[in-house]
Amino acid sequence: MLGLILVMIFMIVAYGLFGIFANIALLVNLVMLIALMSLFGFTLTLPGIAGIVLTMGMAVNSNVIIFERIREEWRNGRSALSSIETGFKAGLGTIIDSNLTALIAAVVLFGVGSGPVKGFAIAHAIGILTTMYTAFTVTRFIVTLWVRQTKPKEVPL
Q: Is the whole model's pTM more than 0.85, yes or no?
């Protein structure tokens, strides 16, 4: 819990308003992950908690990739709207690659592992799916709402 709070504080310090957006998406990701695990009747064990912690790290990584791409586009002279759009589009490939690779590893772990390893693999695999959803749906939705409301002239990163 303390680790999650520290990560959330870091995101706000590093990315300001967009860090708050990322934190909202991170919490939605966590709720979705726990809801899906409950829906399928998975027992939460220490390896499962480790899978959830790794998922939270990957979710933060996804947002960092997107925000850094937005920041890079902004520094290269693009408009705020163009920077945001390009940042999400450019980050998509990298995020899919990293999450797909991690998903393959989780499937292999599930296939060759025993009880605790399978628990980790299941939690991590479900977390990867929720992370890919929240990084591009929830975060983008929140940013889009903000853009429509404020019509920014610059990117607050």
A: yes
